[in-house]
Each structure stands twice: as structure tokens, then as C-alpha cells.
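Format notes (please read before filing issues)

Several people have asked whether sequences and C-alpha cells are stored in separate files. They are not. Every record keeps both together, in the order shown below: the sequence lines, then the C-alpha cell lines. Line labels are part of the format and must not be stripped during preprocessing.
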Amino acid sequence: MRVVLALLALSGPSTVVREAQAQSPGATRVEGVAAAIGGGTGEAAEMILHSDVELRARMLLLGRDRDQALAGELPRGLLAASLRELIGERLIAREAERVQITRPTASSLAEERQRMLAAAGGGERVAALLARLGASQSELDVTVQRRALVGAFLRANLEGTTVISEREVDARIAQDAARFAGRSPVLVRAEVRANLARLALARNIERWVRVLRARVQVRIYAPFEG
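Then the structure lines:
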């Protein structure tokens, strides 16, 4: 889920660290705040740390390029996209908590974990990355729980919004006729339908995040965003 977010604020690193320490007493891994979500009257802001962004970015790379993910320099664009993804997830998870979406089952958590590990190239690669970053398994557990909660919310609120009509499939095939020439019509229709459904889902997720951004303050401090 990749969403387009505007740069709202920028602060020097020392100010960011002091703010994180003030709002997250006892934190042991504050090395700079990439973004803060919420923090209104009577509510502590939820922090996204630079380490959270780096972990997400390297996880996204891990399935495609193990060496780059483990030790390479991360492109600015990948870091920015990872931060936007984390913000979107946390906004939707907050809303899911607010409306009391049914908590994910043990089965759905296991499925989410399996999807995450498969996308990253398997458990061994993920374990190597965690060791390289000095990250803990509990950080992945939190991610799994949040993403499963987000999935439950989206299923409840976007049901039917990714239904693709035969007319839409026909139009896309006609538009890209040369690319599909010589292929099985049945397989082509299945591929096109799946791609259109993914695009529809992405648009609806972006729409939800825009709605939530209008309700919840998001402050972005990361220098790579903007």
C-alpha cells in the first residue's frame, strides 16, 4: 500500500530526539523520529523511527536483492516510499482500533506472517537482516499484528470495491492488444482482472488514507521525504 503524502514539517535532529524522549519515556531505541502521528489533547503521539523506516525499506528489497538489502545504501526514493507505507498502515490501524474491528485470529496472523516472509525471500533472509540491523523478532511480530488488523479493516470497508466488470477487462485487453498477442485468452483475462483489482484496491486505500489524514495530524521530520 503506497500512498502519496505531503511534507508537513521539518525539524532538526536534536529537536526530534528530545521530542521523542519527552513523549516516549523509557524508550531504548530512539535514534531519530521520521514521523509522528496524532498527539492531540490527552493523547501521546505515535512515533515512526528512522530504524522503522530502514527495516521496512530493507524488507522490501530483501526478496529481490539480498546483498543490497543487507548491506547496501538505501535509495532516498525507497526510504520515502517506505515511510509513506508505514504512515498509511498506522493511520488505518488506528481507525480499525477506534471502530473496534474484530481482532485478527491466530490463523490470519499466521497467514500474514507467511506472506511477509515469502515476500522477503524466506525466514533465513529475514533472520539475517534482523541480526544485521540489531532488530528483534518482536518488531516483526508488531508489524504482523498491525498488518493483519489493517487487512481486517480493509476487508470490512472495501468489500465489493475491487469487483471488475467484463467491460473493464475487455477495454484493457484492447488497449494492450499487442502485448497479449498469441497468449491464451483465458490466462490473459485472469491476469488483466487481477491487475485491475490490485489497482482498484490501491486507489481505495489511498482514498481512505486521505480521509484519515484529514482527521489525524501527521508530522513528518525525515529529511528524505519531500
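For reference, the curators noted about this record: The beta strands are 33-37, 46-49, 218-220. The chain has a mean pLDDT of 81.
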